[in-house]
């Protein structure tokens, strides 16, 4: 007999949300098992030797249009309004990212800029923004010209770096979806809520799992304890049939029986620098260098750290679970082939009714934090039977 009602595998956002709901609303005893030395998954942050709060797995800002998510997360932190500011470098000139009317002013003569802005406003009437792909298909030659300029100077080199593609092979349809803003507005996100948790993401997570029904076990690879009973279609944890919520990688769980799911990984080169400010914006996207962006953590949000700052150069790298660099799966490579493989895994796992999948790795999807919370809440509600109880 298991002393826990549920084993949650992975102490990331997905696992934490479901664990809290089950513990608090259904009085279930939960064990969260985490492979890493720390909780919070990819939203983990820590303070470096100069007092700078750093997000180990890349810059995170909470943004959402969803009131329920905002209300849920506000129970575990005080949201501090924050507005992400980004810049992109084109031909040594720093311009807002997403591109906006200022970009046009910077790269066109005064008259040409006025004409182009007018054309864009009347072509995309009452629109807040437009994608570069839409602009590339425009009937207006000048709009297409602007789109081509951005495509060649920014979208194409960025996409080549991010996905390791030869720039000449890049089809506009795979371009990152950062739109062009049809005004001077310089917000990176356009959501109803955009904020940072007052004490950071680790503190938010600690508060979320701080419940007498939740226990946590770190530095434990759950796969060493999981076995499949293929005859009875049951999953066992440490030899006992248990209700399992799994938020790790689905291919790994199934011992790669249908092959490896492809990911892009990242390498962060963190550098402490003795200066008050290293760059104008929190995040800067360069044009030609191998890294895709530089994040300055003392601007995420503002931190006054005695003349010290910390920047992270972010390099997309090949994913290899066994490599020294690139061993973390970050971005799923979504192709028809990889989706087919994923569907096979999903079908296989669906036979095992005591196992529930949730989160970016288990579902082989890119989720923002709000999306992963929505997903975890949906899964939690699906677990309820008609009487509102959970097995
Ligand atoms: C570079 C980057 C920047 C991002 N920025 C933003 C942003 O600004 N805003 C935003 O909303 N979202 C952002 N995101 C997305 C955000 O990181 C995810 O939505 C969120 O972290 C997903 O949570 P999760 O629980 O699904 O996964 P994870 O956080 O990865 O948690 C899964 C956990 O499971 C553990 N695990 C896996 N297998 C096992 C096992 N066998 N045994 C034990 N433990 C295991 C892992 O160690 C991990 O801790 C960003 C993502 C990236 C990559």
Looking at this protein, list some descriptive labels.
391 residues, 10 helices, seven-stranded mixed β-sheet, alpha+beta, 23% strand, Rossmann fold, five-stranded parallel β-sheet, binds flavin-adenine dinucleotide
In spatial order, strands of the major sheet run 8-7-18-19-20-17-21
Total beta strands: 22
Structural class: alpha+beta
Gyration radius, rounded: 23 Å
Bound molecules: flavin-adenine dinucleotide
Entry summary:
The protein has 391 residues and is of the alpha+beta class.
Structure description:
The protein has 391 residues and is α+β, with helices and mostly antiparallel strands. Among the domains are: 6-51 and 198-260 and 334-383, NAD(P)-binding Rossmann-like Domain (Rossmann fold, 3-Layer(aba) Sandwich); 89-181, no CATH class. It has 10 helices and 22 strands. Strands 8-7-18-19-20-17-21 form a 7-stranded mixed sheet.
Strands, helices and their partners?
Blueprint: E1 6-9, H1 13-25, E2 30-33, E3 45-47, E4 53-55, E5 62-64, H2 67-74, E6 79-81, E7 86-90, E8 93-97, H3 101-107, H4 110-123, E9 129-130, H5 132-136, H6 141-163, E10 180-181, E11 193-197, H7 201-209, E12 214-217, E13 226-229, E14 234-237, E15 240-241, E16 243-246, H8 250-253, E17 263-273, E18 283-285, E19 293-296, E20 309-318, E21 331-332, H9 336-350, E22 355-357, H10 369-383
């Amino acid at each position: 007999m298991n002393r826990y009602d549920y084993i949650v595998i992975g102490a990331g956002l997905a696992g934490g949300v479901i664990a809290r709901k089950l513990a608090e609303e259904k009085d279930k005893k939960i064990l969260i098992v985490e492979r890493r030395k720390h909780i919070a998954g990819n939203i983990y942050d820590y303070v470096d030797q100069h007092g700078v709060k750093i997000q180990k797995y890349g810059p995170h800002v909470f943004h959402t249009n969803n009131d329920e998510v905002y209300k849920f997360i506000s129970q575990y932190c005080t949201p501090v309004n924050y507005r992400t500011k980004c810049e992109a470098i084109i031909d040594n000139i720093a311009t807002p990212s997403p591109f906006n009317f200022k970009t046009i002013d910077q790269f066109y003569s005064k008259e040409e800029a006025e004409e182009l802005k007018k054309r864009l406003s009347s072509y995309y009437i009452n629109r807040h923004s437009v994608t570069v792909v839409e602009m590339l298909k425009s009937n207006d030659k000048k709009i297409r010209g602007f789109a081509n300029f951005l495509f060649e100077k920014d979208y194409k080199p960025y996409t080549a770096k991010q996905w390791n593609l030869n720039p000449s092979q890049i089809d506009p349809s795979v371009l990152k979806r950062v739109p062009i803003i049809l005004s001077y507005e310089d917000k990176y996100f356009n959501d109803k809520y955009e904020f940072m948790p007052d004490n950071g993401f680790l503190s938010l997570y600690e508060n979320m799992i701080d419940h007498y029904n939740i226990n946590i076990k770190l530095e434990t690879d759950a796969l060493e304890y999981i076995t499949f009973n293929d005859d009875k279609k049951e999953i066992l944890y440490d030899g006992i049939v248990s209700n399992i919520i799994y938020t790790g990688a689905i291919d790994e769980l199934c011992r790669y029986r249908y092959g490896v799911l492809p990911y892009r990984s990242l390498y962060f080169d963190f550098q402490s620098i003795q200066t008050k400010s290293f760059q104008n914006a929190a995040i800067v996207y360069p044009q030609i260098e191998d890294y895709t962006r530089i994040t300055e953590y003392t601007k995420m949000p503002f931190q006054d750290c005695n003349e010290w700052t910390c920047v992270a150069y972010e390099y997309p790298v090949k994913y290899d679970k066994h490599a020294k660099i690139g061993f973390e799966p970050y971005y799923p490579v979504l192709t028809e082939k990889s989706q087919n493989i994923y569907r096979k895994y999903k079908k296989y796992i669906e036979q095992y009714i005591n196992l529930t999948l949730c989160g970016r790795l288990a579902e082989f999807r890119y989720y923002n934090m709000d999306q992963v919370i929505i997903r975890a809440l949906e899964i939690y509600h699906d677990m309820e039977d008609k009487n509102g109880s959970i097995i």
